[in-house]
Amino acid sequence: MQTVNRHRRIEINRMQTRSLVPFWLLLSALMLTLVGRTAQAAMLEDVSFVSLPGKKIEVQMNFDGAPSEPKVYLIETPPRLVIDLAETGSAMAQKTLAVKSGDVDSLHFAEANGRMRIVTNLNAVVGYDIRAEGNSLLLELGGDSAVARTHAAEANQAASAPRNAPAEPSQVRGIDFHRLDGDRGRVTIELNDEGANLDIVEEGGNVVVNLTGANLNPALQQRLDVQDFATPVNYIDTVVNGSNATILINPTASPYDYMAYQSGSQLVLDFQPLTPAEQKAKEDFFPYKGEKIDLNFQNVEIRTVLQIIAEVAEKNLVVSDNVQGDITLRLKNVPWDQALDIVLKTKGLDKRETGNVLLVGTVGEIAQREAVELQSQQSEITVAPLVTEFIQIDYRKASVIKERVEEAKLVSERGFAMADDETNVLMVRETAKQVEEIRDTIKQFDVEVAQVMVQARLVTASNTAAKELGIRWGAGFKNDRWSIGGSPNFPSTPVVHNPILSQDMADAVEDSDALKENMTIPGNLMVDLGVDRATSGLAFGFLTDRFLLSAELLAMESDGKLEIVSQPKVITTNGKPAVIKAGQEVPTRTIDADGKMTVEWKEVVLKLDVVPQIIPGDKVQLDLIITEDSVGEVYDELGNRLINKQELRTSIVVSDGETVVLGGVLRNQTSETISKTPLLGDLPVVGNLFKSRVSDNDKRELLIFITPQMIRESLRR
């Protein structure tokens, strides 16, 4: 044995020598795994469920190791089963499992601080059984609710067994509120221990947390207003009720749902707003809305139970003679209409409501009664005398109402309906009962349709600025042999009110004896770079017997502002299109393939095309087309002036009376033109005598506003 051990030891040493690094890596990974196992016993890997006989559900939760001992809490209102697992995490990306089977709605998984909580949402309080098998945790739901209460008591007792009784009563240490993503609100109540005796109920539209035998810090006895957080919670009131503490949470009137759970000494209530679709699904799933009651009877007559429920519901009760027998039941905090359905289903009964009267009988008896009533109605339709009625239609066309009545199949084979649009009267020949039903139906259709006034404003603002600077000058020189001056082919333009430049050089030197017998000095302009829109000018001249110089400096500066407001307005009924336009038609010439010219007239208009639709919340949905055309300054090859078009198409939702900006266009055009003499105009300083400048800055802006206004008088009925 020693030899073998020695040999084995030698082999290990060789192995360590050859692969020391991988060995230590393996050892480090093993240590990390052991440490992780110490901090977190198991990870939830998979959850599945299967339906069992007797409306039972078995949920199997598989872990990667043995799960820890579960702590189970049963909440009766709303019905939920909460399972806490210490030192447990989740490897599942899915946080919610929809079951929708039996009395089980869904399962939610949450983990924090090395603990995991599994919340089972129930439709009613049911029995449950939970057990561990290897790496799986099996939860069976369904059966008698008494078993559920027994299990809950045992679970709570087992959960609290390891702890010693608190030396001091429960105490509320703090109340806080936080806003979460998705407009959710969270109310957090800090307690001094985990074993606080608490109860959560819904009373008068409020969520009330009752802490029995709990002390409350006087500083916390106040109202916490959290309306500005835009969550389903308005405010939180904390009061002392004798030796108990009560925390009242007032939600908004909007649909909401909440979930309450306790983690250690911290009680958390999460409030979540519901969309209309979610609210409808919730109501369809749990349609009971009656006042909640407690019933605890053993072997009591069923008639007595029905009488108690009718008193709570404030309804008159009629019970058939066939309703007999006793019943045993224990219901706590259950809506009265749900309690009534439970009692009726248990004893094979059914109900019918007519106004404020509740009729209860056996299923067969009520079915037989309804069959007789249906047969009687059919006989009445067949043999009842026909009457003729003329119904005046006020707001709709009689022919349209006739179509609606026939689509609703309110006219029998014996009767008929005839519409006259000229008098807007609908003639109906039917039984008296059927005529009344037709009248009631017409009242729902023949109503004044709401009207909407749509006002648009198109604001066009322009700001123009222009500057022009130019020069014109000429010079002439002459001696006995030669002369120099402006080209005769370059005409000179005399300057008004300037005697020097408004006459010919020969006239200017007419009195000079030295020049009379010689040739005339040329007087044409050498540089003509003036401006067309000059608002001011400066001219000067210089003249001797042999030399002439004339010059003119021209300048212009302008600044203009323009604002055009177009305000089309139109009124139309809800859901009906409306169009308003104003403008002109301009001729446009076209030439076809045969060379024949035709003239076509095109609209250049300001046009508003709108379809309003009133939606809930005093809002108006608008489908808009806004067009503004104008005749341009540019011509095509046929001499047609081009049309400038500005159009906006959009669909928006606007509050009644609110003004919004639909859009805008900003155009800024800047130009600068320099005219100069080649080469000479590029010279520094002196080059200004051989050039002119024209600069323009044109800024235009278009803004479109829209304002819908509901005509309130049309909404009154």
TrEMBL record:
Residues covered by the Secretin/TonB short N-terminal domain: 315-363
GO BP annotation list: protein secretion
Subcellular location: Cell outer membrane; Membrane
Cellular component annotations (GO), alphabetically ordered: cell outer membrane
UniProt keyword list: Cell outer membrane, Membrane, Protein transport, Signal, Transmembrane, Transport
Location of region: Disordered: 153-172
Main location: membrane
Entry-linked SMART domains: STN (SM00965)
NCBIfam families assigned: IV_pilus_PilQ (TIGR02515)
UniProt cross-references to PANTHER family, sorted A to Z: DNA UTILIZATION PROTEIN HOFQ, PROTEIN TRANSPORT PROTEIN HOFQ
Family statement drawn from the similarity comment of this UniProt entry: Belongs to the bacterial secretin family.
The protein, known as: Type IV pilus secretin PilQ
